[in-house]
Amino acid sequence: MAVLVVSLTWSAATAQGTNTFTPADKFNIPSQNGTVSFAVDGTYSNATLRNDVWSFTDLWLNGSQSLGKLEVSTKDSSIIIFSHLTFDTLRKISVLTYFSEGQGTQTLNIGIEGGESRGGLYLEWSVIVDETFIAQGDKWNITPEGTLTLSGLTGNITVLYFSLGEEGSNENLPFIQQHSVVIFTAVAVVITIFVTIIVRARTKKPSD
């Protein structure tokens, strides 16, 4: 199978319109010994490599919801992105799953700010490696602008974001509004476990 290597020269230009890719396509970061690829077919409207960061606009992966923005960089590691799922019915939940190989570093930004609780919303980020939750500060951190840095993590990685409304104190409110934090935390955990199991079942190793 032919492999398309996206060169540094090509990356300096902006791809216009709807561009397609397959799992064979590699988005390389030569100066950092890094590679980004995708496990499924997909499209994007724009992809550029600038300052060792690949920026994708209007990214769509087969079987996933579209992602308006993805900025990703790898150093001394290769990643294969599986899926992006978003749930907006009552509160926003966003899940990005990928496989990482190599004891290096990845940075990710999915277009959501990483700030603290504000405006009645509680924002939470989690990182799961295979089926283990990794605490913030232990090999991963996030900036206020929403850029995650993960170091030395390998295997199937799930990045989870969810925003929750403050728990209501009015007894006249519907149950779901009175206990929104508890309910949506549980929902987020269930979704995370479900996605992690799906990814693990699909591939123990991407090459299988």
Concise synopsis of the structure shown:
The protein is mainly beta. The chain contains three helices and 16 strands. 33% of the residues are buried.
Q: How would you summarize the topology of this molecule?
A:
Blueprint: E1 5-6, H1 8-11, E2 19-21, E3 26-29, E4 34-38, E5 42-44, E6 46-50, E7 53-61, E8 67-75, E9 77-87, E10 93-101, E11 105-109, E12 121-129, E13 132-134, E14 140-142, E15 148-151, E16 155-165, H2 175-178, H3 180-202
Low-pLDDT stretches: 1-16, 166-180
Largest sheet: 8 strands, mixed
Integer average pLDDT: 76
Give the helices and strands as they follow along the chain: EHEEEEEEEEEEEEEEEHH
Classify the secondary structure makeup into a structural class.
mainly beta
**Termini gap:** 15 Å
How large a portion of the residues is in β-strands, by DSSP E? over 45%
The number of strands is: 16
Helix content: 10-25%
In the sheet with the most strands, the strands line up as 1-3-4-9-10-16-12-13
Shape: globular
Query: What is the CA-based Rg, rounded?
Result: 18 Å
Question: How many individual helices?
Answer: 3
Q: What features would you describe in this structure?
A:
- With 208 residues, this protein is mainly beta.
- It has one domain (5-202).
- Helices cover 15% and strands 46% of the residues.
- It has three helices and 16 strands.
- It has helices at residues 8-11, 175-178, 180-202, and strands at 5-6, 19-21, 26-29, 34-38, 42-44, 46-50, 53-61, 67-75, 77-87, 93-101, 105-109, 121-129, 132-134, 140-142, 148-151, 155-165.
- The strands form two sheets. It has an eight-stranded mixed sheet with strand order 1-3-4-9-10-16-12-13. Strands 2, 5, 6, 7, 8, 11, 14 and 15 form an eight-stranded antiparallel sheet that branches.
- A hairpin with a 2-residue loop joins strand 6 (46-50) and strand 7.
- The protein starts with a strand and ends in a 6-residue tail after the last helix.
- The model is unreliable at 1-16 and 166-180 (pLDDT under 50).
